[in-house]
Amino acid sequence: MDAFSAPDDRTLYVDRTDRQRGSKAPFYAVYTDVDGDDRWGFCCGHCDTTDNAVDAMGRIHCNECSNRTKAEEWDAVHE
Asked: What is the domain partition of the chain in residue ranges?
């Protein structure tokens, strides 16, 4: 895993093998420990930021470059 400093000066770890497909680039899982036991969030593969939002349907949206995923589950009734 790749280590980097979070905005609050703690060390986070990006797992480039644990990813979800985005519209511009994948989102990579970010953990607080090198063993990958405690997930912290996601890193955008397009702009390398952790400034992302996840909604109730599991969609990830990058607040910097607007990279986004589709919902993991959806119901056609809501279309």
From this structure: 2-70
One-letter amino acid at 44 equals C
27 to 13, 38, 59, 75, 79: CA distances (angstroms):
13, 17, 11, 23, 25
List average pLDDT for each run of 10 residues in the chain, which is 79 residues long: 83 94 94 92 93 89 93 58
Q: How far apart are CA 46 and CA 15, in angstroms?
A: 15
Among the listed residues 8, 10, 15, 9, the one whose alpha carbon sits nearest the alpha carbon of residue 35: 15
Whether 52 and 66 have beta carbons less than 8 Å apart is answered as no
